[in-house]
Amino acid sequence: MKKIHFKKPDIKGKIERLRHLSREDIKNNLKKRKERRQRILEERKNSAFSRKMAPVYKWMNIFSLPLHAVWAMVINLIIESISRHSVFAAWNYMVETPLVFLYNAFMIFVTFSIVYLFRRRVFVRILISVFWLMLGVVNGAMLLKRVTPFNAQDLKALTEGLSLFTNYFAVYELIIMAVGVVAVIIWVIAMWRRGGQYQGKMHRWLALAGVGICCGAYVVLTNLAVDHRVVSTYFGNIAFAYEDYGLPYCFSASLFNTGIDKPNGYSEETIDEINKDGTLTKSETSLKEGEMPNIIFVQLESFFDPTEVEFYQLSKDPIPFLRSLFNEYSTGYFKVPSVGAGTANTEFEVLTGMNMRYFGPGEYPFKTKLKTEVCESAATALSALGYGTHGIHNNGGNFYSRARVYNNTGFDTFTSKEFMNILQTTPNNWSKDDILVEHIMDALDYDEQQDFVFTISVQGHGDYPTEKVIENPEITVSGMEDEGKQNAWEYYVNQIYEMDQFARHLVEEVEKRDEPSVIVFYGDHLPTMGLEAKDLKSRYLYNTNYVIWDNIGLEKEDRNIPSYQIMADVFERLGIHSGTVFNYHQQRRQTEDYLKDLELLQYDILYGEQYVYDGNPPITEGHMRMGVKDVTLNNIVPQPGEENSYSLYGENMTRNSKIFVNGEQQESKFLNNTHVVLNDCALEDGDIITVIQMGSSSTVFATSQKYVYQNGTLTLAPEEEQDEPAKNWVEAFEGTSDEE
Questions:
Q1: Distance separating alpha carbons of residues 254 and 63, to the nearest angstrom
Q2: What does the alpha-carbon distance between residue 727 and residue 374 come to, in Å, rounded to a whole number?
Q3: Which of these, 382, 412, 355, lies nearest to 574 by C-alpha position?
Q4: Which of 198, 349, 372, 390 might form a disulfide with 443, Cβ 3.0–4.6 angstroms?
Q5: Which of 397, 442, 457, 391 is nearest to 628 (CA)?
């Protein structure tokens, strides 16, 4: 076999030649490059492939517009077939709603108008086609694993979504996707080389005018489509909207239609009238000192009463404890803004009292607004009355940008999984919820005053495996013909059973404290199981369940309630009147223009002039710290028989504790919350050791104090050498990487 020899590049010689280049040399080089380019083009033009394709290109150029229209319809049918996982379903969509189908095809057609700006028209057509087809493939793949289709907000959560790929996709599926992407890239590159070029005279100004006309026609057509209800600007459920209005329109709507549009009639006078002489911005309570209870909200991932489903039978009740609470305490259906996904939007409604109806389709305010801007919430409302406020979540602090959002909504602390020693996980690798109990107790112990603790659970999270993964399930499911679906439901109800045990454990621990307390349990959305309204006793897909436990003698009041009203309702039962939006719900919930004025109020607070605050907003900057316990070090011991290896002993360490020596991260192995092994590190006297709690994408959430290594021992560095305390964790670690 002939050997391949690689010539060593003469980098130094090239640099010397570049230094001594004259203007004449540059002109000659440019001329040679141009001539070489012309030669290549002539060779491609006269190649056998080009001669063979020349008649095809000629007719394609002559009839390009009608061909674009036909191809746009074909692409639309293909991407809908992929998204709906059925050619027949896509065909029915086209036949039953032809105006919607043609509207989406016209959107695709408009994107093809830009090909006339380029000579490589075949290549540009291929790029545009690949874009639309890949959009369909991504959406189809996502809908295999979840209910929510692919939308623009997924792009804003791209990095955190990628970190969860292994939870949703098997290794072989990831390999197939990677091979597919590489194959498409190689094919596109090949078509750039072989696709040929338009040989006629280019009329780019005329082409640009044509693009403008197409775009203008699309805007006019969109307005007509909305006016005649062919499509809608409001998606009650984004999954249903994609089925009704098609992927191209829905994806573009989620991309460009965000925030709250300025409502008709918005003015300072209108907001003053709604505010009624400042009654909305007052903070007051009828409770006396010592009567104010701890308030704990627990958002249970994908929770609802499994006995609501009518197509299976369960071996026993999966929620015996919560059902006992249903019988004794205030309960009812809990109306949420999404189905199968959208945890952060239910969370947003509960925390702020704002209605998701007024935002863009598929929008997550956590990502579009609250990540970068402050906003009042239940935390600020209760802080005004002297409460300590704490967020807790047994998932990553960067997920849905919660760390930044909680800082911007007035929380004192936020404990994410980076500050937890999670030992038990589900077969899908989600943390089990019982870990939350000890951290809720730590939050209640953090300060002397009464506390508001907002807790987000994760154990019930999908995807739910269709194979049997629990060998001896506590609860079995029967009555279903599809074995895979039955396995998925069996997995789900057993996770719900353990979440019910977590609820019992939490109530027992709170009762032991002998403090006035209220706990609100509720589900954020239905599980990702393809449920239809006809499958449920309530005949409604947006219902989960809630219950309000207390030890202060609250009267049982059963009623169904939307998630954006629950906080105001609990406050009112407790005699608390604080928080602009919560006060509004309490005062206006039964009035005629309640929803209309709520939209005006939300716009004023988030996007308008904030007239309601009269220059005194309840929050102007965050002050939150991550975690409620500091990591400390107290001893270091050389590992027996191992060079440059040490055992570090301390307190409150987790798997996310990273050891730094003189500012550089070292290789380490976590053993338990008091013991970490430091490997391959030659320590010298005077070295500074710190422990950093690190989240995804190397985000620094918290750092320990500095410790000095001296004569084989650790001592706390002098106070003047410690870092100055910051106002909040964002300020302390400005410049560290975030998820996005």
A1: 34
A2: 15
A3: 382
A4: 390
A5: 442
Q: Supply 557's token pair.
A: 């009041």
Give the residue ranges of DSSP H helices in 361-456: 365-368, 378-383, 402-408, 435-445
Give the pLDDT mean for 503-516.
Answer: 97
Cβ neighbours for 639, distance < 8 A, ≥ 6 positions apart: 645, 646, 647, 677
Helix (H) or strand (E) holding 65: helix 64-84
Q: Which of 120, 153, 326 is nearest to 256 (CA)?
A: 153
Instruction: Specify whether the CB–CB gap between 111 and 68 falls below 8 A.
Output: no
DSSP state of 163: T
Within 195-342, where are the H helices?
Answer: 204-227, 238-245, 247-256, 268-275, 320-328
Alpha-helical (H) ranges within 446-579 are 483-513, 566-574
- Print burial letters for 272-282: b (CB count within 10 Å at least 16), e (below 16): eebbeeeebbe
Side chain identity at residue 281, one-letter code: T
Question: If residue 665 lies in a helix (H) or strand (E), which one and from where to where?
Answer: strand 664-665
Could you tell me the two tokens for 683? 């320590």
How far is residue 27's CA from residue 35's CA, in Å, rounded to a whole number? 12
End-to-end CA distance of the chain: 50
Q: How far is CA 574 from the centre of its chain?
A: 33
Tell me if 534 sits within 8 A of 324, measured CB to CB: no
Q: What is the mean pLDDT of residues 41-70?
A: 73
C-alpha 304, offset from chain centre: 22
* pLDDT class of 124 with cuts at 50, 70, 90: confident
Residue 102: strand, helix, or coil = helix
β pairing state of 561-562 and 284-285: unpaired
Largest CA distance in the chain: 94
Whose tokens are 């040490």? That residue is 646
Rounded distance between C-alpha atoms, residue 415 and residue 396, angstroms: 10
Residue 545: strand pairing partners? 333
Phi-psi region of 566 (alpha: psi -120 to 50; beta: other; left: phi over 0): alpha
Q: Which helix (H) or strand (E) holds 562?
A: strand 561-562
Reference 135, options 34, 22, 252, 301; nearest CA is 252
pLDDT classification of 53: cutoffs 50, 70, 90: low
Sole residue written with tokens 């009828």: 286
Please give the order of strands across the beta sheet that includes 388-393.
Answer: 561-562, 330-335, 543-550, 517-523, 294-300, 451-456, 388-393, 413-415, 625-626
Strand partners for 19: none
The rounded radius of gyration (Å) of the Cα atoms in the chain is 31
In degrees, rounded to 5, the angle at the alpha carbon of residue 740 between the alpha carbons of residues 440 and 618 is 55
96 φ, ψ (degrees, to nearest 5):
-80, -30
The two tokens of residue 401 are 């940008």
DSSP labels, 30-51: HHHHHHHHHHHHHHHHTSHHHH
